[in-house]
Amino acid sequence: MSPSRYTYLGPEGTFTEAALRTLPEAATRELVPMVSVPATLDAVRSGEAAAALVPIENSVEGGVTATLDELATGGPLMIYREVLLPIAFALLVRPGTKLSEIKTVTGHPVAQPQVRNWLAKHLPDAVWESAASNADGARLVQEGRYDAAFAGEFAAPTYGLEPLVSDIHDAQNAQTRFVLVGRPARPAARTGADKTSVVIWLGDDHPGALLELLQEYAARGVNMMRIESRPTGEGIGRYCFSVDCEGHITDRRVAEALTGLKRICPKVRFLGSYPRAGVDPADLPELRHGTSDAEFVAAADWLARCQDGRA
């Protein structure tokens, strides 16, 4: 394994690269762009890289399906950190291009819903075609294949373009969530403001099957932060569920919820417990009554005393 190499969804100039460069250790690593999410993660699986940064969720468009599916079905990997990056686009063009001259635009498919209204208002007749990434769209504009690309303004110098319009976004405070992924190992110690991610497969399709899954969290006071269904490829109606919840696997409430899920589901893939980005443990509300580690321990002790005739 190359401990000094991190991969990311490329090419150069993507929001993923910008997110990766916010990590302190990025300054001392070799940062290698890859052509796709699977290629980015496969470099970690093969030992060519120590870690990879990939997008997993956008506040406007939702989950990044390529990442969700690869983490669910590819060789096992673990999430060790998350990064939240504010997202605003610039319309990048070759120098001298005017807005009235733009007939074709490009960008990543996830970008389109975030600029759709702006595009309809300012370039209603422009034809959109998707690119592999926003930075790749900038490269295609540089090559003359499109008139403009929606990308991060920071990508303009890399591709010899200029921002014709900056700070484009239909939704205020739009963010993309990225995850730093490595090979499976012991999770980092809990911080008090953590998140745990898993993928869960239901055993069979029956009334209340999803409710049973949800109750494993609810009964223990574990807050689910995200749940998304993804097809398993085994036929129509066969799904797995990608879930984020508050807490760390060493928290008793989370550990018992995961144990309950493993008991009723044929397959549960643990994707990691890691610090929540931008959250100070001191700012979190107190745990609900009955959900702290001390209360779980006290309940287990009471049960043991009952079993021993000491209650």
Structure description:
With 311 residues, the chain is an alpha/beta fold. The chain has helices at residues 15-20, 37-45, 65-73, 112-122, 134-142, 209-218, 252-264, 293-307, and strands spanning 5-9, 30-34, 51-58, 62-63, 78-86, 89-93, 104-107, 127-130, 148-151, 162-168, 175-182, 194-201, 224-231, 239-246, 267-275. The strands form 3 sheets. Strands 1, 2, 3, 4, 5 and 11 form a 6-stranded mixed β-sheet that branches. Strand 1 (5-9), helix 1 (15-20) and strand 2 (30-34) form a beta-alpha-beta unit. It is elongated.
Count of beta strands: 15
Largest sheet: 6 strands, mixed
The oligomeric state of the chains shown is single chain
Mean pLDDT equals 94
Topology (elements, then pairings):
Blueprint: E1 5-9, H1 15-20, E2 30-34, H2 37-45, E3 51-58, E4 62-63, H3 65-73, E5 78-86, E6 89-93, E7 104-107, H4 112-122, E8 127-130, H5 134-142, E9 148-151, E10 162-168, E11 175-182, E12 194-201, H6 209-218, E13 224-231, E14 239-246, H7 252-264, E15 267-275, H8 293-307
Parallel strand pairs: 1-2, 1-3, 7-8, 7-9
Antiparallel strand pairs: 3-4, 3-11, 5-11, 6-9, 6-10, 12-14, 12-15, 13-14
